Amino acid sequence: MSEKPKSGSTVIEPSKPEQPRTAQAPSVRKPSAKETAWEQQTLNPTLTKSPERQEKFTTLSDHNIRRLYTSADLADWSPERDLGFPGEPPYTRGIHATMYRGKMWTMRQFAGFGAAEDTNQRFRYLLSQGQTGLSVAFDLPTLMGYDSDHPLSEGEVGKCGVAISSLADMEVLFDQIPIGAVTTSMTINSPAAVIWAMYLAVAEKQGADWKKISGTIQNDILKEYIAQKEYIYPPAPSMRLVIDTFEFGMKHTPKFNTISISGYHIREAGSTAIQELAFTLRDGIEYVDWGIRRGMDVDAFVPQLSFFFNAHNDFFEEIAKYRAARRIWYKAMRERFGAKNPRTWALRFHTQTAGCSLTAQQPYNNVVRTAIQALAAVMGGTQSLHTNSLDEAWALPTEFAATVALRTQQIIAHESGVTNTVDPLGGSYFVETLTGEVERGAWDYIERIDALGGMVAAIERSYPQREIAEASYRYQLEVDRKEKIIVGVNDYVSEEKPLETLQIDESVAVRQSARLKQLRAERSSDEVARRLAALRAAAKSTENLMPFIYDAVKSYATLGEICDALREIFGTFEEVAIT
Amino acid sequence: MPDKKIRVLIAKPGLDGHDRGAKIIARALRDAGMEVIYTGLRQTPEMIASAAVQEDVDVIGLSVLSGAHNTLCPQLMSLLHGKGMDDVMVLVGGIIPEADIPGLKKAGIAEIFLPGTSTQDIVGFIRGRLPQRA
């Protein structure tokens, strides 16, 4: 912790690819003589007798799909170059040689509600039901860096996740859960450094070795500006905080993922599959750029960067997206950054089924949607998976609904047979063509963002925000016009009984406020003031802030106090609202 | 005399940043010929009430997905009442449990639109209530 890294730089010099990365435009499709004969002898008479249901068939993201894919579609495709073997570049077939024959994906259900003790109970239940990793959902005040008793927290405490205002809450959250034995993912972004410091402090108290513990902090501030909008500080100091965690993690927690670069929220905000892929990977490139500018070696810190994608309804489009993601990342790391470490090249990702695809109407249908989406994630080679619960269009899940969601994964893993072989769709005319098209679409976007000066510059010009808003509105109009059918919403509508859902009342806020009052009375306020002053001073310098945040957390300074100290130095961010 | 355009304030109260719905509604109402002002994120009830007065709107559309509606909506209604804005139509869209709907209507919310509502239904509702306007 003695090094003094450079940080806080606002000069943005994006890395430049050696040559345009766009895969070459495909050559004109030349059907074989046999295919032409089939068209004339079999297809055309059929079309004359009974025309197809619609003129155009498209994916959920409006990508055109042909009637039939044949070897003519793969004329430019090379199995050696574009497919390869699992565990080897370009990783199209997966990042492990044996994939699920060796080890199943981690079944990681996102959970969090009420106060720390409520969520602790749910965690212990999920682990007892065969879940293999934890994933913490925090409430909105925590995500925004406010304590539960802040005026802006009114009405929001414990509603969308668990309320964590200090190390004392984190200790309760992991009571009787051995941090050394489970891996934990934490969905926290702007205040990620603070929440991570709390987790590391609990690990230390439990006697767990930082070098061995494993888990993930989401810590992806770029997609907050783009899509989810839970930002606190302006982009430059926010990026500094992210790079501080990379650097700290590289030295102290080599098995911890210091970021989960997320397309999930971009997709939920209404993007297409290609936009999700492109913006997420360009975010990844941006983080690598900033890490290198800090003076870190690409092959030393990038292996701790992980990804997070959405699994939406369009089965093959999603599978193509995951396969293309691995190929693009490999090429970007190798060609753009000269990475030599296979762990830098291999894109590891978590998947969550699409929350925005769940319907409030006929909620039991959501089990089926989730199963199809989860199957796509598995066919696409995910490393871990969250399956949404059937009642999540209404509320946080009940224990019953959360159990069905976990069972869905277990059925895919143990009953469906899809885990018996690696990349079961590899070599399919359709899947390989679609993978190539999705990849090309993503490279086009990546190049456009390069031309804008990188992702931070693009965000400041609202470029990805506008692209997503356009796609989201287009989709809504298609639904309104019934060009896209949502069962139970704009077609196949029926009367139904209301669902029993989980309700969080205001008693959580009362409990949290009392706990904070007690904490503030019992801790050493002198020490808290000293630690916060040291943090403020460090924030003005270029020092890595993680050690200062860790010290503040250990003195039981609250989340709100720590975030406020940084607000004083960094200022806050407000977006230009676009509609 | 030509009819004045319907003026709508679309607002996102609370800490939640999920603005997909708010932006879609803002654009759909604008496409339907209304004048739409979007407040942006994280507006307190005070900020929304002040904006409603300043912009002299006919309709306020609140997007709430976070579960904070029972706190935020009644606060806004009483602030509007305090400013003499009793005739402004307040609509809520988002994730609102059925059990909370009667309470919100009693507080003065004109209508609650749940997930799956089409944009035309919302346009139709506003026009139905303000038939004299463009």
Write the layout of secondary structure elements.
The complex is a heterodimer of chains A (579) and B (134).
Chain A: H1 33-49, H2 79-83, E1 106-111, H3 116-128, E2 133-137, H4 140-143, H5 167-173, E3 184-187, H6 192-206, E4 215-217, H7 221-228, H8 235-252, E5 256-257, E6 259-262, H9 264-268, H10 273-293, H11 298-301, E7 305-311, H12 315-337, H13 342-345, E8 349-353, H14 365-379, E9 384-386, H15 399-414, H16 429-451, H17 455-460, H18 463-480, H19 507-522, H20 525-540, H21 546-554, H22 559-570
Parallel strand pairs in A: 1-2, 1-9, 2-3, 3-4, 4-5, 6-7, 7-8, 8-9
Chain B: E1 7-11, H1 20-31, E2 35-38, H2 45-55, E3 59-64, H3 69-82, E4 89-94, H4 101-106, E5 111-113, H5 119-129
Parallel strand pairs in B: 1-2, 1-3, 3-4, 4-5
Description of the molecule:
The complex is a heterodimer of chains A (579) and B (134). Chain A contains 22 helices and nine strands. Chain A is of the alpha/beta class and 579 residues long. Chain A has a nine-stranded parallel beta sheet. The radius of gyration of chain A is 24 Å and the shape is globular. A five-stranded parallel beta sheet of chain B has the order 2-1-3-4-5, with helices on both faces. Chain B starts with 6 loop residues before the first strand and ends in a 5-residue tail after the last helix. Chains A and B meet through helix 4 and helix 18 of A and helix 1 and helix 3 of B.
Strand order of the largest sheet of chain B: 2-1-3-4-5
Q: Describe the sheet with the most strands of chain B.
A: 5 strands, parallel
**Radius of gyration of chain B, rounded?**
14 Å
Strand tally of chain B: 5
| C-alpha geometry of chain B | globular
Number of strands of chain A: 9
Q: Percent range for helical residues of chain A?
A: 40-55%
The CATH architecture of chain B is: 3-Layer(aba) Sandwich
Biggest sheet overview of chain A = 9 strands, parallel
- Which class of secondary structure composition applies to the elements of chain A? alpha/beta
